[in-house]
Amino acid sequence: MKTRCVFGVLLVLAAGSLGRAESEETEYFALFMEGKKVGYAIQSRTVADKKVTTTEKANITMSRANVPVVINSMDTCVETIEGKPLSFESLQELAARTMRVAGTVDEQGMVNMTVASMAGQQRSTFEWPSGAVMSEGLRLILLKKGLKQGLSYTAKVFSPSIMRALDVEIYIGPKRNVDLLGRVVALTEVITTFKMPEAGEIISTLYVDDDLRMQKNIMPIAGIRVEMIACAKEFALSDNDVFEVIGKMFLPSPVPLNDVSEVDSITYYLSPTADANILTIPSTDNQSVQPGKDGVVIVTVKPVAAPAGAKFPYKGADKAILEALKPTRFVQSDNEKIIELAKQAVGDTKDAAEAVKRIEAFVGNYIENRSLSVGYASAVEVAASRQGDCSEFAVLTAAMCRAVGIPARVVAGIAYVKDFAGLQDRFAGHMWVEAYVGDKWIGIDASFKGAGLGGYDPGHIIQAIGNGNPEDFFKLVSILGKFKIDKVIVNKGK
Description:
Blueprint: H1 7-15, E1 24-33, E2 36-48, E3 51-64, E4 67-80, E5 85-94, E6 97-105, E7 110-117, E8 120-127, H2 135-145, E9 152-159, E10 164-180, E11 183-195, E12 201-208, E13 214-221, E14 224-230, H3 233-236, E15 250-252, E16 265-272, E17 287-291, E18 297-301, H4 319-323, H5 336-346, H6 352-366, H7 379-385, H8 390-403, E19 408-420, E20 423-437, E21 440-444, H9 446-450, E22 460-466, H10 474-479, E23 483-491
């Protein structure tokens, strides 16, 4: 069970670079989750040789079922003094794994990017998002607009951490007396809403001084109240409290569910919390979604059976399905080791449904150490280490499906567990796979299969669909903690 370790990434994104016109300055922040100190953030800005270099760093330590997980994130942006993007770098360390993303923007507006990890290097080229700015560009926009109460405007901000531009809505609120670790200061409220197309939004409430220096930031992440508060270096770097994240990311089931893998379908009534916007849950071949009263969303999960006689590799021309065959930086289906494992799992079968079934069982047995200490590993790393939890099972499963020509996508949502880490009858953040067989997306869950839970079942509710990259699950983080399950109807079938 895992809710993505994107806390550091989102904190770096939300921190921004406000004010600070000096040639060199460093500021320190203490990070809190639900009132407990869990780490620190450091922001620095340097002007030299007509270039502005901005660095945002975050360090977080959390506990997952008494297993410590350390997350380090750092974004560096290099821009001209006019705010034109020149280059960027993002370093993410999740547990013992490191990923480095570096890119340069040429005069033609093309980005040459390199992604380096334990799995090797991947290079790509793409066009810089039109109108997007980074830290200095955003700072200049904020300075130009000022802090007049009621002012509202939008910007497009490129984040090296998630390698894409986000639409940001900025609203200038009133001045408020804000508690900064016992020191009360009058600060201006700035509400920033980060939006990703079809992936929801995350709202960050900042408090800045008259020079636009951020002093406090409050942001809910997956239902957890996260705060950044400006402070002395010594306090920022001081010892942390122990914050157990597992209990915060589980939703109670209204009733115990028995033999979930044996039922035909389950209908869920999801209601948004008071501070949530309209819930958007995707419909797939395995789940249907319809609106209810008062913002309630009714989701019926009915696993579809794999069509008989379907062959592989996929020979169709559907662009979306062909996209689910391509290798990505976390689903490296073109890697020799992945291809070797996929062929070993599939054997001599030519039937796509049977091949998917074999891959699910193979991955379920292949990962030997179901470690909660793994931050987020790619398929190649999992193939080498044979350890991890649900996200590692998912990326390896998807990569192996794609390696033999079966389209596959990694999905995230919540899944029912009878008992996990001392918690009973709960839904937890989870990741699994949908594979395209014949003309249907078939749900497969190697993590559940390997744990003796039967595999994919009606206890799974999809909330996000992607390629296995961390940024694909922005929506999952944005929606967790913003709804509850009011009612469950189990249809056992014949």
